[in-house]
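Name: DUF2620 domain-containing protein
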Amino acid sequence: MMKILTGGVGKVEVTGTVKALALDGVDIVVSSDMDAAMKLRAGQADFYLGTCHTGAGASLGVLVGLMGRPACHTFGRSVPTEDQVNSLLDQGKKVFGFSMDQIDVIAPLIARAIAARA
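Structure predicted for DUF2620 domain-containing protein:
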């Protein structure tokens, strides 16, 4: 079971969007950025999806500071392809940031890629 934590201004929306997919092997929980960083570092969670208005920084600020930039990726306002998401997962990225207005596209894309690895 892969555990995904959500944070940022759209954390409730991300959680609802991913839960509605009913993906096997994925548990998604609303969190805060600080709590998520601690749980990721302790191995109590596997991934973090953070949202803000631009997807360019506030969605991941604390996580970048505590997890390190190599574990994090922000899409900003761009929409990735399935191949790009899989490539980032292959590189070991565990923390993803994106803008609130793209939750309905990006959250399912990332969640399905994670579920495929569960």
